[in-house]
Design a protein that fits this description.
The complex is a heterodimer of chains A (95) and B (504). In chain A, strands 2-3 form a two-stranded antiparallel ribbon. Chain A has a domain at 5-42. With 95 residues, chain A is α+β, with helices and mostly antiparallel strands. Chain A contains three helices and three strands. Chain B folds into three domains: 18-296, no CATH class; 326-437, no CATH class; 446-503, Arc Repressor Mutant, subunit A. Chain B has helices at residues 72-84, 182-199, 224-231, 249-268, 291-295, 314-322, 328-337, 343-350, 353-362, 368-386, 397-408, 414-426, 431-437, 446-459, 461-466, 474-484, 491-503, and strands at 14-17, 20-33, 70-71, 92-93, 96-99, 109-112, 122-127, 133-145, 149-155, 158-162, 169-175, 211-220, 241-246, 277-281, 286-289, 302-303, 310-311. Chain B starts with 13 loop residues before the first strand and ends with a helix. In chain B, 40% of the residues are buried. The chains are: A alpha+beta (95), B alpha+beta (504).
Chain lengths: 95, 504
Amino acid sequence: MSVSQDDVRRIARLARIAEPSDRIAQLTEELNGILDWVEMLGEVDVQGVEPLNTAVQTPLPLREDAVTDGGIVEDVLKNAPKSEEGFFVVPKSVE
Amino acid sequence: MNAPVSADTEHRYTLPGVTGEWEIVVGLEVHAQVLSESKLFSGASTAFGAAPNTHVSLVDAAMPGMLPVINRRCVEQAVKTGLGLNAKINLHSRFDRKNYFYPDLPQGYQISQFEFPIVGEGEIECERDDGSRFTVGVERLHLEQDAGKSIHDLDPNATYVDLNRSGVALMEIVSRPHVRSPQEAAAYVRTLRTILRYLDTCGGDMEKGQMRADVNVSVCRPGDYEAFRATNDFKHLGTRCEIKNVNSLRFIMQAIEYEARRQIEIIEDDGKIDQETRLFDANSGVTRSMRSKEEAHDYRYFPDPDLLPLVLEQSFVDGIKAGLPELPADKRRRFVDALGLSEYDASVLASDKDRADYFEAVIEGRDAKLAANWVNNELFGRLNKEGLSITESPVSPAQLGGLVDLIKDGTISGKIAKDVFEILWTEGGEPAAIVESRGLKQVTDTGEIERVIDELIAANPEQAAQVKDKPKTMGWFVGQVMKAMAGKANPQAVNEILAKKLLD
C-alpha cells in the first residue's frame, strides 16, 4: 500500500491542517516509508487466526447510571476564545 | 431472510413517470435517545432543557486526558431494545471513532460502533393505517454518542454551541430497505416508537429530538424490488440518496415523496442520480444537497483506543430477557384472544403504551368489551376534540371504571351514562354518588313506566291506533316516554310494554 501526493493533500484537508504545499513530495515519501515498514507484518501467516482487537485482557469496566458530574459551566468555557451567556461562540458554521 | 417476496398489489405505491410507472424503496436509520440518568461515557445529566453547558463534564467537552467510562444502564437499554426487536444480541461488540469536524463535536470524532455493533439482525412487524401488517427487517442497532447543539440564529456572524446533549447515548437502529411507500415509512417509525416506549428505553418524543430519522430513498421499476429480495443483490435497486435528520412523521412522508419525484425526473431526463446526503427543508418541502458534508464522508473509522471491547455474559442478556414487558403485538393479540375485543379496538388500545396502561387500569375486575367501547369512543373522542393526551385526561381510570359498572348492572342507561361522563369530565366526582345525588338512576319499575305510557296513549289515541299498521311509528312513543321520564326509563322495558299495549 502506498499514498499519492493527492492522498496526502486530502489527509491534510480531512485533518483540518494547512496544506504543506512545499513539503508535499517529501511528506509523501516519508508516509510511504512508514507504510512500507508496517507492510512487513504482511509476512506473518494469520490464516485461521481471529483478529485481535486489544492486547488487554481485562473486561470493559461499566459504571452505574448516576449523575456525578456537570454543573461546571465556568470550567467548561474557561479555554474558549469566545463565550456568551453560557454558550461557546464560534465562527458561523451553518449548512 | 431471503424468502421470495411477491408484489403486494393491494398496498402497492407507485409514482407515474413519462416513461412508465416507478416504485420506491426506502430504508431508515432511526436515532433514538437512550433513557438514562447520565450520559453514555460521562456522569453528566441527560435532562432536557437545562441552561447551556451546565450538563457538561470535562469528558463531554473533550478536554485533553479525559477518559470515557461506559454507562451500564445504556448497555442494558440497548440489549433490551434488541430483544424487543427480536434481534440477535452480539456478546462481543466494539467502539470505534468516527472522525469528522463540526463545532458541536469537540472531540473531533464521535464514539460509535462500526464493524461490531451490540445488536445484529432483527425484525419489526408494523401496522398500516388500514390495520394491515408488514414486516421490516432490522439490520443492526448500535450505541453511539449524540452531538451538541449549534444555534445559528442568535447572531448573524456567529454560531452558538451548547454541549448539554453532547455525549448522551443514542441507539442507531438501521432498517433493511423493506419500506415501500411514504405511509409505510411513517408506520415503521410509529411502530418502532411504540416498542421503545413499551420497553422504556427511549422517550420517543420527536419534538424534543428524542427520535430522529435519516431516510434513504431510491426509485426502481416494477419487479426490481422483488428481484432484489430474491437475490439480496442491490444492483436491482436504484442509487439512493440519504435525507438527514428528519424529525416528524409528516416530514418523513413529505421528504420521501419529494425525493422520489426528484429522482424520477432526473432519470427520465437521461440524468444520473449521485449518491449523496441531502437535507429536508420543512418550510419549502424540498430536499437539497448538503455539499459540505460530502468531503467529510471519509470517516476513517478505527477502534477507540480508550475503550476495551464490550463483552457481555449470556446470563446478563438472559436476565434482561426475563424482565421484558409485554410488547405491543403480544398485547394486541391478548386483547383479542383473552378479552374478546375487536381487532380494531385491540389495535387502537395497544398502539400506545399510555392508552394501554389506562385501559388496563379501567378493566381491573370488569367487563373488558364495554370498557373498551367507553375508552375508545367516549374518552378518546373527547380527548381528541380537546387536544389532550391520555395522560392529561380529567377522568381517571377508576372514575371511568365506576361508570362502566353502573351501566353494566343496569343502574343507568347508556344515554344517562353520557351525561354522567360529562359531569365527570367537567366537575369530577364519584360516578355512583353523582347518579345517586342527582336522581339519575334508571327506572326499571314497570308500574311507573306503564302509568306514563297509559297517559300518553290516552292523550294521543290516533297515533296509538296507527302503530298497528305502521309498527315503526312506535318509535315516537319510545321517545315521548323517555322525554317524560327524563331519559331514566329502562329502554328495554319501555319497548316491551309499548309493544304489548299497542301491537297486541
